[in-house]
Write a structure and sequence with these properties.
alpha+beta, 4 helices, single chain, about 240 residues
Length: about 240
């Protein structure tokens, strides 16, 4: 496997690069076929496809380049605050030359503030939060992924937090990164992630009275009757007849 340079041009340690996703990591689902045709009618030629959905597994040290420096500094800073790093950091992933810390949601705000304020870390900017829905990832179906940038050190990392469909609550980071205000509203609007402590968690794209969360993988793909403040627009397959 060819190593990829990281943000500073250093080469990650080849031994720390995770195995290919079809041979390692954590399998959460097996997908069969393509384009949603599961019971016949698939004329695409892809009906026999079988593909595993695999999340990358935890990497082992050394991570390579400056990744170890960031991990060491974060763990040390949390210990100084009497927080065991193993309680806050569920796993550390090095995948595709990117460093991701998977954080327990109850410690997210403290970890984010530490990453922002520690002089050796100084991740001053959060460029947004992305929602992800993995229906097969039982007990942690909803994921929030934060992209953090250090302007001081010229580095980029990610934080990832998970929550179950049955309890989609994650602490808001607006108090740490005010730029997350609209990003959290968008993730709430489309995925149903509830960011506790957000100053005004309302829909940002869909109508206020919209039912459901359109970017979840269990959301219907078509034929949804659109409703705006009581006025209904028929589903596409009911609007007109061509026969």
């Amino acid at each position: 496997m060819t190593d990829h340079p990281n943000a500073h041009g250093d080469e990650p340690n080849g031994n720390a690069v995770p195995a290919l996703r079809d041979t390692g990591g954590e399998v959460i689902r097996v997908r069969r076929g393509m384009f949603g045709a599961n019971n016949g009618g698939d004329t695409s030629g892809y009906g026999g496809l079988v593909r595993t959905v695999t999340l990358p597994g935890a990497a082992s040290r050394p991570y390579g380049g400056w990744f170890d420096e960031v991990a060491d500094e974060l763990e040390g800073a949390l210990e100084e605050q009497d927080l065991l790093p193993s309680n806050a950091i569920e796993k550390t992933v090095v995948d595709r030359a990117e460093l991701t810390f998977h954080i327990a949601r109850e410690h997210l705000v403290q970890v984010a503030r530490t990453l922002r304020d520690d002089p050796a870390l100084r991740f001053e900017l959060c460029t947004g939060v992305s929602g992800v829905h993995f229906p097969g990832d039982k007990g942690r179906e909803l994921h929030a992924v934060y992209h953090l940038r250090s302007l001081t050190h010229g580095r980029v990392i990610r934080l990832e937090v998970s929550a179950p469909d049955s309890d989609p609550h994650i602490p808001s980071l607006v108090e740490v990164y005010p730029t997350n205000d609209w990003h959290e509203r968008e993730a709430y609007d489309f995925f149903g992630l509830v960011f506790d402590g957000h100053p005004a968690l309302t829909r940002i794209m869909m109508p206020d009275d919209w039912q459901g969360f359109p970017q979840r993988k269990d959301y219907p793909l078509g034929g949804i009757a659109v409703e705006y403040k009581g006025a209904q627009i028929p589903a596409p397959d009911q609007r007109r007849s061509y026969s």
